[in-house]
Amino acid sequence: MTQELPGYLVCGLSVGTALPLPGMLRFIPVTSSPDVKICRATVPESLDGADYVGPTWTVAGQRFLLNLPGIARMLVADGREISVQPAPGVKESDVVPFVLSTGFAAILHQRGVLALHAATVAWKGRAIGLCGPTGTGKSTLAAALCRSGGSFVGDDIAAVRFDKAGVPMVVPDGRQHRLWADAVDHLGLGQLQGAAVRERMQKFHVTPSGYEAGGEPRPTPLAVVLLLRTREPIEPPAPPKITRLDLTDAAPLLREEVFRGVLAQRMARDAELFGQIATLLGGTRVFLLERTLGLEQLPATVAAVTKLMEMPA
Amino acid sequence: MAGVVWLASYPKSGNTWVRLLLANLLSGKNQAVDINQIAVNACNIVNRLHVEELTLIDTNLLSKEETYPLRPLLADFIAEQAAAENKDVFVKLHDAYFRLHDGTPLTGKTAARALYFVRDPRDVAVSLSFHCGFSIDTAIDRLLSADTRMGGKLGTERGQLPQPLLDWSNHVRSWTRQNDVPIHVCRYEDLRADTAEVFSRILGFLQIGASQETVEQAVSFADFTELQQQEAEKGFRERQAISTAPFFRSGRVCEWVDALTPEQAAAIVAAHGEVMAEFGYL
Q: Which InterPro entries does this entry report, sorted A to Z (chain A) (predicted)?
């Protein structure tokens, strides 16, 4: 008999988990045959038949092993199962952020899904993907856009699926916002702040505004991708600048925004991703958004993005 | 012998200059290398974004202590790659030669060689204060404190992993007294006094063959005036936003005589006199 596990929805996949996942938006009814199962188990230190061995990770066919020294080891197999072995004395909740990021990246790559490293917000039924490396303010900008009339779709992984008509749909990653304490204060979201992302960390899970009132994230056509670029700080700060990219410029830049793109490369996914990105560009416009980092610059950036979204496609 | 070569030093001790000398020598071109494109085989192993790409781990989620065990894994990975590709990879480092609880060096066990640059700590104090935009007294506190670290800032594309420096004397000793990696120690002052000769000795240690003519060309392309001119024209990416002077500011030897008060100089000598004497600074 299959053991029944608490469940969540992550990037359109039902997930049964033996580990509680703080920071996820919603329980789904307990499921006996989830798409993905997360369990605690003994995880090997290495994999036989490795295709690639990196400094902390190994790919062997449809298996991916991640070593988080002093924290945990994680084995992701066949797009279906994540096994986690926390290091002695480490709390499960302190391992979860890595399961939800790199662990799910491996699941999505094993399943052949196009997943961008992006926060996503819907604007009048069309989604904006905010792409950029870690620490460039994706989550903060997404939360600010939600304060200005947008509705939240996802915090960190934008999994794209194509519907029957070939329209690229971004599927929610099931997470809440994850924001640094200063961004929570600045955006006045203290009432919605939840637990810290990891113990003793000043980054917190924050329920998206409007969520309690039924603003459930849902799959949304990905109309626009903004590639976030940071400007050198000058005085006075230059205003945000949005530039449309043509297809030949956009395609290689989007490849760089694939979440854990190096892993995808080592899993020999380059050709498949090339095709998926080409299809995406059939329905999605791509822009560069150059702006100065800093909370005081947020209103100008929000204004520039909302102006873009109000323009006819 | 191919592999990783550490270019190690306390900050503001000539590390970037030597990288530019190497870059100009190895470029084989008849013009000075762009200071913002130091195309010497290099690998940054402390930049958070680069580390995330290599390890698939978002280091912003890690505590300072949790980042340390990643460092030897990264260092050994890069060393193995360099050896497999039969090339030298030069890696700039400011860490002290620091060991984890289990005795593993932070910089791993597989580097081929290390160059270590040492500079009079009184001049380091002056240079550091301009570079970091703080007072000379603060710079001296950093040189004297066993807890001094570089980096550690979260987020942003320029964020770096925390790098333990220890105090100045222990930084010097940690490198010059380790026996894991063959090391060549070079005084900044000697490199300033006779750049071509001292750089030739560095090349000898690295087993890089170069004619007198090519060495002299590299020296002129990495001449301080040239570097200052390039920085004035187009800036330098390694300069910090908080700096109160250009990165290639003065390079002067014994600038401390004019810039430090007698008390400030005495504080440095009181703390570091033994090692300073060892390197001919007293």
A: P-loop_NTPase
- Residue of chain B with shortest Cα separation from A67: B55
Going from N- to C-terminal start, the domains of chain B cover 3-278
* Residues of chain A in Cβ contact (below 8 Å) with chain B: 54-57, 66-71, 97-98, 101-102, 105, 133-137, 180, 197-198, 200-201, 203, 230, 232-233, 260, 262-263, 293
Please identify, in words, the CATH class of the domain defined by A114-310.
Answer: alpha beta
Q: Which residue in A has a C-alpha nearest to residue B72's C-alpha?
A: A55
CB A36 within 8 A of CB A16: yes
What distances in angstroms separate CA A270 from CA A57, A61, A294, one per listed residue?
Answer: 19, 15, 35
Closest CA–CA distance from residue B272 to any residue of chain A (Å)? 36
Neighbours of A274 (CB within 10 A): 13
3-state secondary structure of B168: helix
Interface contact flag, B157 A55, Cβ < 8 Å: no
| pLDDT digit string (tens) for chain B, length 282 residues | 578 899 999 998 988 888 888 888 888 777 777 767 665 555 578 888 889 999 999 999 999 999 999 999 999 999 888 888 888 888 889 999 999 999 999 999 888 899 999 999 999 999 898 788 889 999 999 999 999 988 877 766 678 899 999 999 999 999 999 999 999 999 999 998 999 999 999 999 999 888 888 888 888 877 777 767 777 777 777 777 666 667 676 667 788 888 899 999 999 999 999 999 999 999
Identify the closest residue of chain B to A234 by CA–CA distance: B241
**How is chain A split into domains, by residue range?**
5-110, 114-310
Task: Assess contact for A197 and A203: CB atoms under 8 A.
Answer: yes
CATH class of B3-278: alpha beta
Q: Which of B56, B69, B159 is the closest to A135 by Cβ?
A: B159
Phi, psi of B189 (to 5 degrees): -65, -35
Q: Does B236 touch chain A (CB under 8 A)?
A: no
